[in-house]
Amino acid sequence: MDLKYFAIVFVAFLVAGIVKGTAGMGLPPTAIAIITLMLPISEALALLTLPTLATNLWQAFWGGHFRTMLRRFWLMGITISIGILISAFTLRSLGSRHSVGYLGVILVIFSLTAFVAWRPHVSPRHEWWTNPLSGLITGLVGGVTGMAAVPFLPYMQSLSLTRDELIQALGILFVVFTAALTIALADAGAFTITNGVGTLVATAPTFLGVWLGQKLRRAVSPEVFRKMFLAVMFGVGIHLSRGLF
Predict the structure, then answer these.
(1) End-to-end Cα, the chain, rounded Å
(2) Which runs of consecutive H residues, i.e. helices, occur in 62-162?
(3) Which residues are CB-contacts of 36 (< 8 A; sequence separation ≥ 6)?
(4) Higher-confidence residue: 39 or 212?
(5) Taking the alpha carbons of 212, 217, 219, 223 in that order, is the dihedral positive or negative?
(6) pLDDT above 90 covers what percent of the chain?
(7) CB-CB contact of 30 with 231 (8 Å)
(8) Which of 22, 104, 110, 202 would staple 149 via disulfide (CB 3.0–4.6 Å)?
């Protein structure tokens, strides 16, 4: 196995972990943005599976709101899974050359919507239909791009949730998203011995990065860091989206 390959994996997931630890978000887009500059997107998505599952399992169960959030969003989790499997099994675009371009578009949309201070508001009385609808669309998009960003993140921020509830709900739904995506990637033959070992190797620098990011959060304003992160994601998105033209 190539030492350079594992060096790339280590650096990408260390940086992605630092971003997540500092800003509380951004592990998948950061890791994918770095890795896809040197490796195929299918490789990047396969490498993400274990670190994403591990960090989000911790996020899902830690906080005291697990049962409440599970009751509130279980149907959304089901429709996310259905959407991923439908688009992945029918379109067969997950990990393809064009999916890099689609990923770029998603990163641009994600960064622009996150930059805007205004947030829509969805009343709890409408969640019985908006939750599964948002989940289905998120899954359909994720089955092509491999990312849960649009409309998922803006929608979750529009709900009546405290910060702790939001973080725990995101953890639960990211676990579901990653599990369904792993099935789709396995069906597409994305997993190899190399990236199987690579995803194990990626877990350690991810947790190290999260720890460093939490330390960094005390020295750097989270809002300033968030804006810097979004600016980088916007630039990377523009770069990747050129693959569609």
Answers:
(1) 34
(2) 66-91, 97-115, 127-145, 152-157
(3) 44, 100, 103, 240
(4) 212
(5) positive
(6) 42
(7) no
(8) 110
**What is the reported pLDDT for 117?**
61
pLDDT digits (tens, 9 = 90+) for 129-164: 999 999 999 999 999 988 888 889 889 988 989 878
Q: Residue 105 CB: number of other CB atoms within 10 A? A: 18
Of residues 95, 191, 90, 205, the one with CA closest to residue 145: 95
d(C-alpha 2, C-alpha 195), whole Å: 11
Expressed as residue numbers, the domain containing 182 is: 3-244
Q: Which tens digit of pLDDT belongs to each residue from 50-93? A: 999 998 898 889 888 999 999 999 999 999 999 999 999 998 88
Residue 12: half-sphere exposure toward Cβ, Cα within 13 Å: 28
What is the count of structural domains for the chain?
Answer: 1
Query: Looking up tokens 């949730």, which residue turns up?
Result: 161
Query: Dihedral (C-alpha) 18, 112, 56, 102: value to the nearest 10 degrees?
Result: -110
Rounded-to-integer distance, Cα 186 and Cα 188, Å:
5
pLDDT at 222 over 70: no
Q: 191: helix, coil or strand?
A: coil
* C-alpha distance from residue 54 to each of 27, 71, 103, 182, 202 (Å): 12, 22, 23, 13, 11
**Residue 192 to residue 238: CA distance in whole angstroms:** 30
Single pTM value for the model: 0.86
